[in-house]
Amino acid sequence: MRRRDILKAIALGGAAAVIRPFDTFDVLAQTGSTAANGNADLVAALGGEPAEMLHQALIELGGIERFVKGGNQVVIKPNIGWDNTPEEAGNSNPELVGSLVRLCLDAGAARVSVLDHTCDQWSACYKNSGIEAAVKEAGGEMLPAHDQRAYQEVALPRGKVLKKAKVHRAILESDAWFNVPVLKSHGGAGITVSMKNLMGIVWDRGYFHWHDLHQCIADICTLPKAPALNIVDAYRVLVHGGPRGGRGKDVVVAKGLFASTDIVAVDTAAARFFGQFRNMPLENIGYLRKGEELPVGTTDLDSLKIKRLKV
Amino acid sequence: MALGKLLRLWRLLRLGRRLCGAAVFILLTLLFVGTGDFLPAGAHFMARLQLVPALLAGFWLTLALLLLATVLFGRVYCSFICPLGILQDLLARLYSWRKKRQFCYRPPSRAIRLGVAVFFLGALLFGNSVLVTLLEPYSLYGIMAVHCCKQGWIFLNNGLSQYAPLASFFGLYPLPYPNLALASLLIATFLAVFFAVFVWLRGRDYCSRICPVGTVLGWLGRFALLRIRFDAVRCVHCRRCEQVCKTSCVDSGRQLIDYSRCVTCFNCLPVCEHQALAYRLPRLTGKVGNSTLIPVPKGQVKKKPSSPPFLDTKRRQFVGLHLAAVAGMGGLVLAQAKAGTAGSTVVTGEQETGQRAITPPGSRSRAHFSRRCTACQLCVASCPTRVLRPATGEYGFLHVLQPRMDFRHGYCNYDCVVCTQVCPSGAILPLTIQEKHETQAGTVQFVQHLCVVESKKQSCGACAEHCPSLAVKMVSYDKVPGLTIPVITPDLCVGCGACEHACPVVPDKAIYVQGLLVHQKARILPKGQELHQQVEGFGF
Fold first, then answer.
1. What is the pLDDT of residue A238?
2. Among the CATH numbers 3.10.450.50, 3.30.70.20, 3.40.309.10, 3.40.30.10, which is that of B366-521?
């Protein structure tokens, strides 16, 4: 390195240090609980319609502009795993996904793509979840994720069991991506929220199930390309018999929404919310503790600045 | 009628045949190759028009109409509706660019035809099998279309879809290949090569010498009302008609047409410049309209087709072939009974796990299914989840190519009834979604000692999360907080194979579906309810 470069670097670093307090650079300091600028670390909203709660939650988090810049390629990853109707609550709320697409486009995003590596037949899931229609109406596009060639292997040096994974290229190549899971019960993992939703950006899910599911879920959260924001849909909550909705499975209309850049914290909050409907001790959800150990976030909600909204 | 006018009429007839054939062929090909929702409305109808499937499905009206059409117009089925016939016409046309083709009259091979026909009818009668499949024109076409055209199309599409801007512009996305077996691929390749070469060498000889459907229709066609008839006086024996006859059934030397082989393609009519050929009714009286035509007595025309030239008098050979065919049938039936595929006992395939092959929902039972399925592969091509796959040995060697449920690449979508709607032969009967939910094609089996939860003491739940009917659910296990193990409720199981597909255990799955020889009724749970609960707190 030449002297001139070193001097330049010092000058730039100094400038950055001076400018730091301004909100525009907040994206650099996404994680951690240093809410230096007054934004909440975690927002919990209750009682409204999905779009309404999303709007208010985003305001508390510093606005959509904090996450999406003009000309950005944005990807949204809802849970569209099942050939379920919105009422069966196996998938993320279509209204929520649609309004997020619109917000991103309004913020100047060049392109908003929505994808999920579904469990049931992909086109049936996209269609019957109502998400395809909502996204297209909002001006976004659905990306198929059923073909292995769309995935690219990524090293996960921080992972304990999962050392590498094939992740969808659209996620890796995006400028920002949103993790929009639905809160629901899960027979194997207790509940599924943001962390487990990341299984839908990965090609080989069988590996997770075969090699300690909880650890692999925590490990995939070490993905360098972390979601810009995790938005948990808890509008309809499948309390028993999840993650697939359907016959014999009742749904509580809870009208909740949680959002945070801390993936473990938002799942912890969602798990405690879930605990109001059914006994679900946090230690039953192994990936939360394992996520905290890595660390990819915190389960200590008291250390965070939480904004509670009643819409 | 003036010559020009007449020729125009004949050309119009030929054009009509070509247009109709093209429409049927394109629609049927789209039906087999088509992906997504852009299928034209008439495509399914074309499959239902096919003769043998209609016979097996018991569509008596279709059958009656087809036979009536044959009695009225000759073997129009073979030129207008049969996809294999039209395919051969297309091939012949393709070849005509390279090879100036001149056909000539060849005597019929009655013994072979009747032998094959008897053999075929016997196979149909004694329970449908691969023998029917490999002789039945619609199924032969289907096998080739799925294995060659569909695969080719997907290959092309997937190649194109790699070019991202172009792909998103045209809405192209990669498509999964149909779930095919090596055996079926080999058979399809053989068939494609066979027809490519055979048509090159012999034109539509398959239709006139082998095809059992053609033989039966040909027998009726001999009595057809409207036929291509020679005008003995006008014919100058120029042999033009003979040279364009793809089935080699026109003998211009003796002014005879073998109506059992004539597929009414009308190719011979427009080439006759002497008005010696006409597609018309028999002359009842000597005097008909145009007085320049020399009347032909009724008897003369009527007798000719069945007169000696076409009756191969080698009676001994004929009888011998029949005996051989019947003996062959007997042997095969015995073999079939021994292999246990007649519908009562367990099949030997996949012995290592003791797993029995599963017929698709709507097929009622193995017996019902195997008796009707002609293995046309339409359901395999249409299956959105790629769960249907042509069988190799799973149903026994006589039922090769009939589809079975295979959970390697996917599982049967709970709310999908596509295969039950496309099947033209009644092997897979139509189901509503509600009826499908109540149909049990197989039952779930759980091998606990193989399960990840028991062997590794780790969470999994892949089977239960995929189960659409709560036949598999997770319960607390070993008093470890959060650890759950599957329990099965077989009477809720529909046999969709989602659990088996999702199970991460290899090579033997810890959970699998055992096929049922006779499908049962599955218990179904009521639809889930929406509980409006007043939620006050956040819980933290």
1. 94
2. 3.30.70.20
